[in-house]
Amino acid sequence: MDRRLLLSSVAYALGLYVLATSGLHPLLESRATFAFLVGAPFVSAYLMARGVASAGWWWSATVGVLPVTGAVAVLLIDGAEAPAYIALAAPLLLAGTLSGGLVAHWRRGRSTALETAAVLLAPVVAGAFELRRPPQERVSDAESSIAIAAPVARVWDEVVRVEAGADAERATASGPWLPVSQVREITLDLPQEAAKRTLRFDDGRSLVETITAWEPEDSLRVVADAPPTAPRDRRAGLGLGDGGFTLRAATFTLQVIDSAHTRLRMRHTHRLATRMNGYLGWWADTLVARGQSGLLELVRARAEDPRRGPKPDIRAATAARRTRERTDERSANSLEVGFSVVGAMDGRTDVYPDSVVVLVRDGMLRAQRIEAPQRLDSITASLAQSTGASWSPGRESNAIVLELPNENGQQIALGAMQRFSIPRERGESLDGRWVVFTYHLTVPKTADNPYGKAWTYTHARRLDTTAAPPE
C-alpha cells in the first residue's frame, strides 16, 4: 500500500477539520454540518480507494477506513476532540467513508483531473450552501422516573441540594461508548422560591438555575439562567451547551407510594439549535435521558443511605412554607407615568413572622421620558405607608443589582423569578402597608444633587392582612 497516498488522504481530512474549527475559511466554519461530517470522510476515502490497484468493490469500499481512522486518531491523541463527539458522529463518518470508496471504485479508470478537483472542493462548496441556512430550533421534553425506598421528606432533602461525594458513590448512567457529563454537586443559596441553584458537573462546567416553583415534598421547578459556563475538558464527554444544545427548565415531582417509598419523576425541557436537528435530535434526547438517569440514581443512593440524616435547613424551610400566614396574589401594579422608570412586578407576597417575602415572576422594567443619561443601579422593595401626598418607606429588602444604562424606551427583563425579602419585627402590624419597589438611579450631578443619585417608585396593591392568622 502506498504510504504517501495514505498520508495525503489523512492530511486532507485534517485540513478540512482546521477549516471547520479555526475560522480561517468563512465557507466552512462549523464542524457540525453534513458537509463536513460526511464530505470529509467521503473525499478522504475516495482519494485512498482511487489510488489502490484493486478491482474488488468490497476492498474499495473499506480501504477508506484507514485514512479516516488515522485522522480521528490524531484528533483524539491531540485532545482536539472528545471521544463522545466522535461516537456521536460515527454513523455519518462511516456513511461518508463507504460511499467515497464505492464512488472511486465505480469511476476507476474513467475519472479525470477535473473530476478529482471537483470532488476535493465538494465539501467546501456544499458547506457554503449548508451554512446559508440558519440553525433551526428544536425544543423537546424528556421524562424519567425512579422508585426510592425512602420517605418523601428524605427524597425532598436530596432533590433540593446535592453535596459533593466520592467518585465511587456517583452513579454512572452512561456507558463507556458515550460518556455524558454528570452532576457532581448542587448548591442552594436559600431554600425557597427565587433561590439560585448551582449545578456543577464532572467536566468542570457549572449551570445556575432559578427556582420558580417550590412546593415542599411535592414539586420543584427550575429554569436555567444562562448556558453552562466553561472551562471543561473536551475529552471528558459531551457537555451541556455543546452544538447549540442547552437545558431550559426542569421539574421534579414527588409521589408518595407509602410511608417508606416515594416515586421521583424528573422532566427536562431542552433546546437544540443546529443545521442537523434531524440527525442530532435523537442524540440530544438520549443525552438528556442519560443525564437524568445519573441524577436520579444519585438521589436514590443518597436518600436510601441510612448513614445520612435529614437536612435541618431544608426541613425548617418546609415547616415555614407550610405555616406562612397568607398568600397575596398581586394581579397588577400601578405604573406612575411621570417617573423615568416604571415596572410590571407581578407575583406573590408571602407573610412570615419575621419577614415579608415578595416574589416577582417575569418582571419587566421600562425606561421613559429620559432627557439626560441615567444608569439603573438596583431595585429594592419595602413596606411603605401612604400619607396621601407621599410615601413613607419602611425597612428595605435585599437589592437586585442591575447596573445598566437607562435608555429611553428600553425594556429590561428581570428573569423568571426574583425574590425581595423585607425584614419585619415579630408581631408588627401590616395594616395599611403597601409593597413599594424603589429603582435606584445614577443621574448627572448638579448643585442640588452633588452625588448624582436619584430614585423612583412604583407600587403594588396594598397588603390585605384581614385573613392572616394570629401569631
What does the model show?
With 471 residues, the protein is of the alpha+beta class. The protein has 3 domains: 3-132, no CATH class; 136-318, 2-Layer Sandwich (Alpha-D-Glucose-1,6-Bisphosphate, Chain A, domain 4); 326-462, Sandwich (Immunoglobulin-like), CATH 2.60.40. 32% of the residues lie in helices and 31% in strands. Helix 3 packs across helix 6 (83-106), helix 4 runs antiparallel to helix 6 (83-106) and helix 8 packs across helix 9 (277-304). It starts with a helix and ends in a 9-residue tail after the last strand.
CATH topology of the largest domain: Alpha-D-Glucose-1,6-Bisphosphate, Chain A, domain 4
**What is the first-to-last residue Cα distance?**
89 Å
Radius of gyration (Å):
30 Å
Number of helices: 10
Helical content stands at 25-40%
Query: What structural class do the secondary elements suggest?
Result: alpha+beta
Enumerate the spans where pLDDT stays under 50 for 5 or more consecutive residues: 167-179, 231-241, 330-335, 467-471
CATH architecture heading of the largest domain: 2-Layer Sandwich
In the CATH scheme, the class of the largest domain would be Alpha Beta
Number of domains: 3
Looking at the structure, what is the overall shape?
elongated
CATH-defined superfamily of the largest domain: START domain
What's the average pLDDT?
79
Number of strands: 20
Q: What share of residues are in beta strands?
A: 25-35%
Strand order of the largest sheet: 1-7-6-5-4-3-2
Q: Characterize the main sheet.
A: 7 strands, antiparallel
- Please write the string of helix (H) and strand (E) elements: HHHHHHHEHEEEEEEHHEEEEEEEEEEEEE
